[in-house]
Amino acid sequence: MTRALVAGSVLLAFASAWQLAGARGEQIARAGRRLAARASTGRVRSPAEAAVALGIPARLARAGLEGRVAPPAVLAAKLGGTVVGITCAALALPAVPGRLDLVVGPVLAAAGFLGPDALLERAGRLRRGRLVAALPDVLDLLSVGAASGRSPTAVIREISRQGVGPLATELAVAVAEIDAGASQRDAVEALGRRLGGVEVKSLAAALERSRRYGSPLADQLREQASALRRDGRRRVEERASRAAPKIQLVVALVLVPSVLLMILAAIIAHSDALFGAV
């Protein structure tokens, strides 16, 4: 009964706030902007500025969602997650023993607020994994182009036009920057900053060494591609080595008890025949 009353109170409060927002939406928005500006000492005056302050555009760029998802939309999702977390906390608090209610409420609210960030970071890690997996083939194509006398920019432009996947998209952005007047070095370094890690930074360093000192570019690119493939094989082997203990845990905690339960059920089902014979 208490849970139902708490849930009803929360729903009525949200309904009242919705009606109030519909009646005085602009006034509430102005008041919210003033409050955010005061709380942030004038640094945040709009949802877009709040999204920038929270680092949402950078997470969208790492996840490959820049231009498709607006930062204020992610900010709204964070606020919605906070509301859901507070609602779950209100429903769970009556069943929480002792003083744990002082911990459960803030933890659930924080989890709802940080949930969209966690999803974006996961998408960013998966996307970067696909980028790193596709990079050795791109380095091989660049080394072949360099050995044949073609410029790296021309090869990168061709890869960006014919390639498929996130790496081809990022290379297309680098080519667009070069066409807009940026140097090859600046475009590749910007690509490395967007992707993170040392893989693209090594490519930028090899291109700069070849341009400045005339060192053979094809050999350096082939060595980098081989090193990346070795690292990829080592990561696969590490994941495979971690799979065995997980499988053993599943066998010990799930399969073995289930088999024992099946044997016990068979013994109980035939208990009359078994114990009657005795």
Protein traits:
mainly alpha, 84% helix, 278 residues
Give a verbal description of the structure.
There is one protein chain. It is built from 12 helices and no strands. The chain is mainly α. α5 runs antiparallel to α6. The longest helix is centred in the C-terminal third of the chain and has 53 residues.
Shape, principal axes of CA atoms: flat
Order of helices and strands: HHHHHHHHHHHH
Assembly state of the chains shown = single chain
Total count of helical runs of at least 4 residues: 12
- The amount of beta strand, in percent, is under 5%
Write down how many β-strands occur, each being a DSSP E stretch of 2 or more residues.
Answer: 0
The rounded distance between the terminal residues' Cα atoms is: 54 Å
Spatial extent as radius of gyration: 29 Å
Helical percent range?
Answer: over 70%
| Overall mean pLDDT | 77
Give start-end ranges of low-pLDDT stretches. Answer: 20-29, 35-40
**Which structural class matches the secondary elements?**
mainly alpha
The profile of the biggest β sheet is:
none
Tell me the layout of helices and strands.
Blueprint: H1 2-23, H2 25-39, H3 47-53, H4 56-63, H5 71-92, H6 101-147, H7 152-162, H8 166-179, H9 184-195, H10 199-213, H11 217-269, H12 271-277
Helix pairs in contact: 1-5, 3-5, 4-6, 5-6, 6-7, 6-11, 7-8, 8-9, 9-10, 10-11
